[in-house]
Model the fold of this input.
Amino acid sequence: MPIFRLTIILVIGIVLYPISFLVLGKTFGEVIFYRGIVHAFLIFVLQFLVGVVIINGGKSPNLIREPAFRRFLSLSLAALALSFNLTFLIVFPVTFDRSVTTYLLEELAHKKILSAEQMQSLLINDYVIDKKAVLRRMREQGLSGNVVGEGDRYTLTPQGERFIWVSRGVRWLFGIPPHEEGHFSSPQSAQE
Done:
């Protein structure tokens, strides 16, 4: 089997991913992360099916002519593209959507020079207050099932509590500083 065909199958899965965002838009919800997961799995299935058709055996060795091996090879390529697409989702669109750093860099690009005090003011007044960053995040977390809102008050759901427990575990495992002093513990001590 020519490497060219295998490369084409892999590229199909990677190229179709951003195209699906353009074509389907917000079809699968407003939260970019969850929408990206749905897109990734749809492309995974499509790529697997296309791969089974493209890997047809032709003049290739006998092993490639076996239908089970063609399905396995196609599944492997689709899984590789899925891994790339999920990594792309988290590194690019989700990071840019949520990144305070990206916001500040965009402001610097627009205004050219800003003091630390001006950036802090922009962050609080423009990003948090004018662009309603907190409300956007709470709405997203409500759609995710991590919080419930009543008026302007929010409460963690049991799912949200589990998310926080996992988040603390990841922070502890990778040595990421806590958000608030005194509220950080390893997953084991959080259960005690």
Remarks:
- Residues 3-97 form one domain.
